[in-house]
Amino acid sequence: MNNPDDLFNTIIPLGRLIHMVNQKKDRLLNEYLSPLDVTATQFKVLCAIRCGGSITPVELKKVLSVDLGALTRMLDRLVARGWIARMPNPNDKRGVLIQLAPEGAALCEQCHQLVGQTLHQELTKNMTAEEVTTLEYLLKKILP
Asked: Cα(97)–Cα(81) distance, rounded to whole angstroms?
């Protein structure tokens, strides 16, 4: 076992499988969203902002489990594209709130319509309806 991946697969096979499924999901998202010139990462950030309404960068960092520096650079790119806006935080004079701009909200809706059931169907195409239900149930048990 000289390969670190072999060690990881032996010690945490479920974690590796979950990671691989997540990578496949992101590859599919990138493929489906490419006509809109949106990446999977951008889509996830837009969705998190959409769900959070007005959200601070620190809250967004926690939701997405990403590095604050990388998130700040991503937010800069999304602001430059006109998809989000930074607004003064009324509860923190030095802080900002992140909100979807109208263009970002419209894009988010387009992305959801484009991806929608297609992603779910692609990820579960080799499973029965009962297996999908069981998988969803088991994955929810893992989450807090």
From this structure: 17
